[in-house]
Amino acid sequence: MIEGLVAGRVWSSAERRVDKAGRPYCVAKLRVLGADSEGVLVNLIAFDTDVCDSLLRTHEGDAISVTGALTPKVWTDKQGISKPALDMVAHRILRMGDGQHLD
Q: Long-range contact list for 78-85, CB < 8 A, 24+ apart?
């Protein structure tokens, strides 16, 4: 497991979901800019109630930092081009610019 810190902008707002056992969790996407103009998409998932609530308070375009467990991935777009991505289990969220902890 890789423990990481990523900073970027919320790409898709958080959604609350429920697993097969009835436990709630949240998912969202974060776009992290890198050396290229496209950046990397980070698929966020949160299981902790406080972190999930914090993620639900963010909106598309908000700048946030997220810490958690990272898993590198590769996905293929419609043109067949392979692109990097990250899956992250979010442990803590910080809104950038105002230093406000969201969890």
A: 83/38, 83/40, 84/40, 85/40, 85/41, 85/42, 85/43
Amino acid at 50: D
E strands, the chain, are 2-18, 24-32, 40-46, 63-76, 82-95
CA of 91: how far to CAs of 37, 46, 82, in Å? 27, 7, 28
Per-residue pLDDT tens digits for 25-57: 999 999 998 776 778 999 999 999 999 999 999
Q: Are strands 2-18 and 40-46 parallel, antiparallel or unpaired?
A: unpaired
Which residue carries 């999930």 as its tokens? 52
pLDDT of residue 38: 77
